[in-house]
Structures are given as structure tokens and as C-alpha cells.
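Justification of resources, computational component.

The compute hours requested in this renewal are based largely on the per-chain cost of generating structure records like the one below. Each record pairs the submitted sequence with a full C-alpha cell output. That output is archived, and it is also reused by downstream analysis tasks.
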Amino acid sequence: MSVPATFDDILVAIQPHPKKRVAVAVAQDDAVLQAVARAEKENVAHCVLVGDQDKIRAAADAASADISAADIVHEGDTHKAALKAVTLVSSGDCHIAMKGKLHTDDFLRAILNKETGLRTGRLLSHVFILEVPPPSSASSPRRLIFVTDGAMNIAPNFEEKAQICVNAIGLARLFGIEAPKVAALAGVELVNPKMQATQDAAVLALMSYRGQFEVGMVEGPLAMDLAVSEEAAHIKGVKNPVAGKAEILLVPSLEAGNILVKGYSHLAGGRTAGLVLGAKAPIVLTSRSDTAESKFFSIACAVYAADMAAVKVKIGKVRG
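The structure output for this chain reads:
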């Protein structure tokens, strides 16, 4: 499998495959509907819009979004609309769930519903997908980097970080990276007893060296520059297979990941997408301030990852 280096590569790669169906919960959101219209127009996905049909049509008109090819399922109540959208996915009628105009907590409550939700027993975690360098730069090859978790798990403990790492490795493998390189980020590259992130990173790296992850390689602690810049690693004399070549950035907290990605998007103009992993199906979860383009790329990435359940990546046992 070739490794997509840009979101445009993903758009090309999904064209030959059967069109996936995306259930959008509370779809009356301008940017979401613009993304839906583009997904329909470019044959990326077929969308089922669940929500107040009058508000959906009004929002589409206001956003100049042609949603004539999408289906609309009327449900005026926000919570019921979220449940209905998720049920469409859990029943197999749709393949992907997407958050519309509702709070993330309310959307996740529907995702975790014991009867009709998408829970699997695995930890749910969020992955931002960044296309780097920004489209305006041609100085180096573009590539996709996965940043986790900058949207769901606020201050994950060590065990949760391991599960977050596993989820991201599974996604990266689906994107064609057979042995993903994971940088466990911290503020410094040395273990400091006063900085929990450095201790967690070091133990994750030790687990990796001892074969406790089925595939991939985890190294840390690494500062951000050492994770993505071979020149910085050379200057600082840091030598390991991940330094400067990280494909997954495991951030120490939600705050760190959220600031990293939003700085990249809003200050550097970088293109991003966002998915939730660990459920029975891919979930598109983006910020309310994200652009229609970001929401569209998120749909495209979810379509590309729709068969993620076939990728079996887990934390293994320590070999004796």
C-alpha cells in the first residue's frame, strides 16, 4: 500500500472504492453542510443529514451549499438526532458518524450509548491529521503527521497514553505506514522526576523496545523539535530511529495537542483533519471553529479509514 502524503492523495485513493455513507448528527451547521456538499459533489461520500429539516435547508441556503444529493432525516430534538445518527451507523445503514451542531459531550454520549452506540471496550481517543509542510511551502516533501490526543482525553495517565498510542498506530498502519514511528513528546528530551510526561514517555519507549507493542516504534521523551527535525536532532546529538522522523506525535495532554494543532492551522495555514478512534466505526469530530475544508478532509480521512477494524494492533505481553 502506498503512503498518502497529502489530503489530495487520499481523495484520489478513495475514488475506486464503493461510496461510504456518513450520518451527520444535528446537521444544521454552515461549515458542515459546505463540507457535505463538497463530499457529494466530489464523490467522496453519501451523507445522511439528521436534524431539523427546516433548519438544515435554511443553513444550506445561507451557506450556498448544494445538499440536494444528500438524504435528510428529520429530528428536531438535538439529543434524539444524535442518537438517531449514531444508530444509523451501529445498525450498518451508514459507515461513519459525524458531529454537527451540538456539543461534543452530547455527541459522545450517543456514541457511548449502551444499546445503540458504537462502544467497543477500547478507549476512545482523537487523532488530528496534519498535512506538512503547509500547501504554500515547496521546500520539502509533504507528508501526513498524526497528533494524538488533542481533543478528548484531558490528562491521560500512563495506561491511557499506551492505549491512545495503539489507536494512532492502527490508523497510521491503515494509511500505509507499516511500522509507525511514535514520538512521545515532552518539554525536554531527558527524564526529569519533576515532569511526569518525561517519565511516561520513557516507560512507553522501554515497552516498545521490549516488544510490548505489536508493531511500530515508540521513542521518548522527545521535545517537539527533535521529533520532527533531523537537523535539530543532529545539533543536539540525539540519535535514535524516531528523532526527526516521527509520524505520530503522542502529546502529554489535551492542552498541548490542541494548542499545537490550532497554532498550526490558524497561524501557519496548515491543512488538518480530525477523527475519533476506538469505536466500531470511524467518527468525524472537528472543532466548531474548523473550516469547511477541514471538515471535508475529515470526512475523506474517515472514508479512507472505514475498514480500520481489520487492522489488529494491540499492546502485547512482555517477552521473557
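The chain has two domains: 7-120+279-309, 125-266. The domain at 7-120+279-309 is CATH 3.40.50.10950 (Rossmann fold).
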